[in-house]
Amino acid sequence: MGAARATATLKDATAIAGIGQTPFAKRLPESEKTLACRAILAALDDAGIAPSEVDAFASYTMEETDEVEIAKAIGAGDVTFFGKVGYGGGGSCATVAHLAAAIATGQASVGVAWRSRKRGSGPRPWTNTRVQLPTPAQWTRPYGLLRPADEIGLLARRYMHEYGATRDHFFNVALACRNRANQNPAAMMYDRPLTREMYMTARWISEPLCLFDNCLETDGALACVLVSAERARDCRHRPVYVHSAAQGLPAQHHGMVNYWNDDPLTGPSWTAARRLWKTADFGPQDVDVAQIYDAFTPLIPLSLEGYGFCARGEGAAFTEGGALEIGGRLPLNTGGGGLSEAYVHGFNLITEGVRQLRGTGTAQVPGATTCLVTAGEGVPTSALLLRS
Amino acid sequence: MTQTETTTAASGGGERADGLLAPVPDDDGAPFFAYAARGELRVQCCAGCGEPRFPPRPCCPHCQSFESLWKKLSGRGRIWSYVLPHPPLLPAYAAQAPYNVVLVELADAPRIRLVGNLVAAADAALNSVPPERIRIGAPVKAAFHETDGGLTVVRWLLERP
Fold first, then answer.
1. For the whole model, what pTM was predicted?
2. Which of A7, A28, A105, B83 has its CA 20 to 30 A from that of A150?
């Protein structure tokens, strides 16, 4: 009857058993490799699992450290699964999804996913834009569309035009993240409150986006440890189950410049969301807390629509009335997110999701049992539904 | 020869004397720039089913034909969106900031949107149109600007300046 057996399902088959991180700062003295090792060893310690038991690694592109060096440095055993997901910030959640698939299908038993980054003290990636010119960037860079902020700015302007979104809506997003960072001692913006006046008078980066619409440049590293659900129940903390996972690369998608898609305002989140909810036992209305990739504020309304929290065109209005604050309809980025905790390509959203479901968030949503975590919208993306 | 060209492009061949970046066309995109040099805006279309596609690529996503042709368009379009970048930027761009970058939806192929600059004249500066003149939906027409390196890029002029 083996042939008739149901396909292996990811649903709740694996759990995040450990999380770890280094400090976040504009400038850290240690190398990315050292920071990665510190975060990974902290995550393993958090889980109560020995480094020698690690047999799987997952990372995502723009990661400068690799599993060969990391495995050697931390003292991993024989590694039987490893992979790197493409598209930078779009791959954060997919690392966990790939480890979950490997563990659920018996290819590995203890998986580590990580991100180490020195964006705070290193060069901005877009200053190296010349080497990209023979790629699709030949159609954008020469005209001065140089940075991710410029690319998302074009989408934001159109979104404002089509749906009446205003800068106040983007401010709602920036403020919710900043308010949560003000409660999180690990956040880079812990002691730096934001006001509407500061936002409205801030310098432009790419009109219509100002300084506070952009994420932070950060040095730091994070990691998480994934094991089977069964094993997780014997670990140090309450297991946080991987309930559903998905990636999304829409038809005719073109990376950051999705303007060549038929409908640029329905981005990769829409594709990931369809798969994510299809294999879940609950829907958007049942999500207690959301960690949504916030490299730029306009990604939040776009993602709220994509993941089904509201209808198309209603994402900006959704942010009104404190909806994204603690006690609101959908508490958002409760550690401060990329906008105000640290921008480490979204990995801090995963670890914060775990803390919320353990009940240990610095801005804890009372009784939270379900959490959506997403990766970069605007590039081929990924998302996770976590539950306790 | 190809080896040398690739190396040059990767190490900074796309930078013009004025410091702005020039496109480094790949094999699929080269005809676009060859036609632009003749003052023509053309886009790649499938020779089988006729569907236009952008950016140029080897085969048709609708019928999978590898045969393509370059259809001449009217050069007219509308502004779909725009941004005004401010520093930090690459130095040559910072010198003209804030300038505009527009996304133009082509009148004859509405699902093709070209990134470009709205300028007062084909050879004018990137910031030659005051920001208050720029609006979504404004009709524009193509103009052709020969860069320092000899490569011609498409720019955009307001139909009603």
1. 0.94
2. A28
